[in-house]
């Protein structure tokens, strides 16, 4: 209850901010996208990460307002970067199950907002985790399809860690899958993880899905994954999550 009150106050007082982690095109090495990651600059407790407050926001329903804020802030920033530095740059935002389920008009509201910003809907990717549809929730699935129908892209986050990764690929026209970092961290030494990553990449490509490797921390991991044809990399090797200004400078330097 206390936390819920704090969350409401934090939203009203603009204590939330987005950090952006670069996503690099493996073949060219260029920063072609970023994932927006939510932070709460709490006046007493310092910077809080999503794991510390998203569950409470979901339970209370405040996730809808918070998610709308994330969407608007990320797209406003994206429009600025596309205008100033990188006309083809793209962003990913994370969307939680509860948010999709509860947001009555979100899809149309978001499309209107993109139009106001003169942003193409395919410049934005919505990242969902497998949990989203595990509920067997028809309404949530329908919302995802509506987002895709409107031209937004969908990424399946943390791929390989849930029960239903594969059936997901069958039921939804996924654009990207993000290999969970638990499959990447022991590359290239682990023979099992080499096999799993190669197989995931090959399977995705045959289904017309592009692949993002998460948690790439070393040059050797980058080289191995690039050699397997992985499309994009994200992780400390390319860059940590950073504030908007730092990412803007990076985009300008690469332009
Ligand atoms: O950056 P960090 O390691 O703290 O992120 C942890 C997790 O929080 C990520 O896996 C991500 O899925 C989730 N997350 C980050 N930003 C958001 C957001 O804006 N909304 C939701 N629902 N989840 C987020
Ligand atoms: O679940 P999701 O992929 O949305 O979470 C992204 C989270 O992973 C972010 O909180 C980010 O801080 C973290 N992260 C990003 N790159 C790396 C990395 O190279 N290594 C590790 N250990 N964590 C990372
Ligand atoms: Mn994510
Ligand atoms: Na992930």
From TrEMBL:
Intracellular or extracellular location(s): Membrane
Residue stretches making up the EAL domain: 1-255
Name by which UniProt lists this protein: EAL domain-containing protein
Lineage, broadest ranks: Bacteria, Pseudomonadati, Pseudomonadota, Betaproteobacteria, Burkholderiales
Segment of the intact protein contained: 692 to 946 of 958
């Amino acid at each position: 209850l206390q936390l819920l009150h704090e969350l409401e106050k934090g939203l009203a007082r603009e204590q939330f901010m987005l950090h952006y982690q670069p996503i690099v095109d493996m073949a060219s090495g260029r920063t072609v996208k970023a994932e927006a990651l939510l932070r709460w600059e709490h006046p007493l407790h310092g910077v809080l990460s999503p794991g510390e407050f998203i569950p409470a926001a979901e339970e209370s329903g405040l996730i809808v307002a918070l998610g709308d804020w994330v969407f608007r802030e990320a797209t406003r920033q994206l429009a600025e970067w596309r205008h100033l530095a990188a006309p083809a740059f793209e962003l990913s935002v994370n969307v939680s199950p509860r948010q999709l389920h509860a947001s009555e008009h979100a899809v149309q509201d978001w499309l209107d907002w993109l139009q106001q910003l003169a942003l193409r809907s395919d410049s934005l990717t919505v990242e969902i985790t497998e949990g989203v549809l595990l509920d067997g929730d028809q309404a949530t699935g329908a919302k995802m399809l509506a987002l895709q129908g409107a031209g937004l892209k969908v990424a399946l986050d943390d791929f390989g860690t849930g029960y239903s990764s594969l059936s997901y690929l069958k039921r939804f026209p996924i654009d990207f899958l993000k290999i969970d970092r638990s499959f990447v961290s022991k590359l290239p030494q682990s023979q099992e993880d080499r096999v799993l990553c190669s197989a995931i990449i090959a399977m995705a490509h045959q289904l017309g899905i592009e692949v993002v490797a998460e948690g790439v921390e070393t040059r050797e991991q980058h080289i191995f994954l690039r050699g397997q044809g992985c499309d994009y990399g994200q992780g400390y090797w390319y860059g940590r999550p950073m504030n908007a200004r730092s990412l803007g400078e990076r985009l300008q330097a690469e332009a």
